[in-house]
Amino acid sequence: MNADEVPGQVSILLVDDDPMVRRGLRLVLGGDPGLVVIGEAADGAEGLAQIERLQPDVVLLDIRMPVLDGLAVLRRLRSRTTPGPRVVVLTTYHTGDDVLTALADGAAGFLLKDAEPPEMIAAVKAVHRGDPVLSPAITTTVIAAAARRPRTDPDAARAAAELTGREREAAVLMARGLSNAEIGNRMHLSVATVKANLTRVFGKLRVDNRVSAAMVVRDAGLLDETGR
């Protein structure tokens, strides 16, 4: 155990080339007794070395850095034979392709750097529990990027075949980036009913968030066959 840690605390490593960002993150995360920042790194190469040395529970990782960027760090961690820390990617940008790449390379979460402190703290605790986290501000962008990547996957098609007609319609609208309220207006349903439909969709598609569901819908070919 690191000297800074207390039993039961979530240990965190900050990897960002901006010292002001690291200082701000320390202040935010240090305000929660369940979290402790045990180290910092200013680039991806240093970050990998610190991960190896400190063995943090969670890494907050900038996506744009010198030497090695965040995506390169994720790829290195994914190639390791031993399980690594859970990684939350931080960025001031929110291009959908970057987020999709980060998620595919093993990121457990993706947040904008201007996220409110409670959101940041909740995200760290969520990924430590094993729950994926995606900032609401970038969900629509990511779904749109997922929908642009043409692909057909037999496993996705089999999972999508389990959907009822209403679930299928809700899933397609969700995959196109519509909010629950917009889906409800389009389908003449209450928001509560839309949420219930999407909960069943997530279960049948074996996913736990809107981005993953959108990717399965895309991979199943539902966007192509239903048109725009």
Automatic annotation (TrEMBL):
Chain ranges of the Response regulatory domain: 11-128
Modified residues (4-aspartylphosphate): 62
Occurrences of domain HTH luxR-type (ranges): 156-221
Native source species: Promicromonospora citrea
UniProtKB keywords: DNA-binding, Phosphoprotein, Transcription, Transcription regulation
InterPro entries in alphabetical order: CheY-like_superfamily, NreC/VraR/RcsB-like_REC, Sig_transdc_resp-reg_C-effctor, Sig_transdc_resp-reg_receiver, Tscrpt_reg_LuxR_C, WalR-like
Name recorded for this polypeptide: DNA-binding response regulator
GO BP of this protein: phosphorelay signal transduction system; regulation of DNA-templated transcription
Record-level Gene Ontology MF annotations: DNA binding
